[in-house]
Amino acid sequence: MKPLVGLLYNPMVGAVLEQAPELVECLEVIPDRLWYDLGPVERGRRFRHIGGALERVKQLSEGLVVAGHGIGLSLPSPIPLDREELDQIATIAIELDFQWYSEHLSVFHAPHYGVPLGLREFGLPIAYDEETFGILRTKLAKLRAATGCELLLENGTFLAPFPQQPMTEPEFLNRLYAELGCSTLLDLHNLYASWRNGGPDPVDYLERVNPACVREIHMGSGDFVGGSGTDCHSDITPHLVWSYACSIAPTLRNLRAITFEFHESCFENIGVEGIIRELEKIQMLSEAVDAASPFVNLC
To answer: In angstroms, what CA-CA distances link 132 with 55, 71, 122?
Structure first.
């Protein structure tokens, strides 16, 4: 089956869809970006939806497959699941008819600590152990029940590796799929950036991931700050990341979408033409996956 060509929604996506609507088959939406979270305030007034934002997404996504991509639930964290935020996500999932929903395999909230929304490229690493697996078992069940969606977890970008892990990240992802039915969103730039930050070798990592568990691939880029790679969606996909995609994608028999991410603050730097070229390359890669061709070179 041919994977869908996807684009992560932001306010500048409309300009891309106006020029190349035929290239985009899936729109991935971050629910957290459709509201302001005012925190623990007067009951019923915590979440303020941004005027017109949901209607704009509905307009742009007409005729497209829509998926959800979360950044706020901090699923591996030991703190309880935020029930109010979960209810908001579930409402958006119904409104936009999410076909699947993904979150990050990173910690953004811990006791007395939270990563600000604008710094979500700096998620904290987790321990790949039985305790974390148990936390995810409980939270994923609640998230699945609330949204009614197939669930995916994305590998994050970490500034430094977590030492002496009981399991490798691929082993942990494989187990999530085998035991909990939670698939993988494989962000290839995150993998590249983590490697540059001292993490696992991407080639070895990709050999260890069960191909059956990968349902989506993220493509994109990020800045290097003080020599450390980040997940900030600031440019087109680097050549080395494309080489990973060309190698792994044709082996992924359950791959459902290949999605390009860019942040609206970098739109002028990348340009509509640059984004369209990325989507054209993803389209070629998607066709190679559909043809089960092991020979594809888009670098």
So the answer is: 37, 18, 19
